[in-house]
Amino acid sequence: MKKLISLKLITIFSAILFFTLSSTAFAKYYSYGYSLDVIGYIYQGTNAEYISTQASQNWNNAAKTRIGYGPNSKNLIAHNEYPDSWLGLYRPSPYVSGNVTQFSISINKRTLADYQKREYPNSTYNTLAINTATHELGHALFLSDLADGSGDKSIMSYERDRTNSIPRKQDVDEIKSMRGY
Amino acid sequence: MIALTLFFTIGSIFSINIIYQYNNQSKVHPSPIAHADWPELDINELINDADVIAIVQSTKQEFKEEPIDDGHFLERQYSDLDIKKVLKGNPDTEIVLNQAIDYIKKNEKYLVFLRKGEDGYYYELTDDAIVPYEEGKYISEIKDFTDEFKEEELINEINKQMVDL
Questions:
Q1: A61, A96, A122, B123: most buried, per Cβ within 10 A?
Q2: Rg (Cα) of chain B, in Å, rounded?
Q3: Is residue B8 part of a domain?
Q4: Is B27 in Cβ contact with A83 (below 8 Å)?
């Protein structure tokens, strides 16, 4: 009888643990993405066409997305000078029934130019700009930033090698996992 | 019953493993809506680059929706900062922090590493350049300076780092 009760207790405890932890494990994605498959955009600013095209192709080749220029799209990839210290910014807006209906990506020429000269003197400005644009497009694909300690495992990591703009295996796996295929 | 117990136990171990991998690989940043890509600066770079390093308290805040790019807007928070102690620079007694993301809270204390913009506003150098004061301690996530400090300890440590530079 005692054995049966303890077995029942273990079962209940394990069941609670299983369902609690399982649901937590799939709560890591960014909620304000735009689409997992098709994303159109317009561009603005010097060299923005080249930077956005390269960043889109990085995702299209790695994760089989269809990201590209669409003259009627409300999404924007801009390449301008901003007073802030960030290199790039992804801003979703507005929300209708919980979905993001458009987004803007701002690539900060001012900060990136300084950063490239100091941290990546052997690389080019465009390489870093494309890397930042690829990172920001990752947010439109529902991927979150990865903070310190993540190294180069993801294009979403602050510690990534910024001369490599190809989305990493972890990024592609996460998108596949969200899509379910 | 034993089979069921085994099933759930194995399931739990599997879940714990997923959580472990997740914690190691995907430290999600707390910003709930807009996301920024920041330069990765360590403590020495922050000290070098900052025009002002100070302990501050936000006294007044204002939100403004401003155009950022063609047809798009950004909500900026302008925070008046009351300067409690200056560790580097010569700021006025009150300065204005301009933020587009990860806004600071009113009446809270922070250690800040700021750059003065050409527009006269101050900007944080990275997302880690604003160190919050919580429950009697400053919680630093700055690269090579990750720790919790009491105020005096923090001031001593920053001063020591500045001397070493």
A1: B123
A2: 20
A3: no
A4: no
CA distance B143 to chain A (A): 8
d(CA B125, CA B128): 8
Contact at CB, B115 and A88, closer than 8 angstroms: no
Secondary structure of A22-74 in HEC code, one letter for each residue: HHHHCCCCCCCCCCCCEEEEEEECCCHHHHHHHHHHHHHHHHCCEEEECCCCC
Of B4, B39, B117, the CB nearest to A11: B4
Give residue-wise pLDDT tens across range A99-109.
Answer: 688 999 999 99
A84 touches B: beta carbon within 8 Å: yes
**What does the pLDDT look like over A127-153, one tens digit per residue?**
999 999 999 999 999 999 887 678 899
Touching check for A52 and chain B: CB below 8 Å?
A: no
- Domains identified in chain B, total number: 1
Residue B24 inside a domain? The answer is no
Give the predicted TM-score (pTM) of the model.
Answer: 0.81
Which residues in chain A touch residue B24, judged by CB atoms under 8 angstroms apart? 149
CATH number of A38-179: 3.40.390.10
Complex ipTM over 0.90:
no
Domain boundaries, given as residue ranges, for chain A: 38-179
CATH code of the domain covering residue B104: 2.40.50.120
CB B75 within 8 A of CB B103: no
B145 within a domain of the structure (yes/no): yes
**Mutation for B interface: A1, A84, A106, A128, most B CBs within 10 A:** A84
Q: What is the pLDDT of residue A122?
A: 97
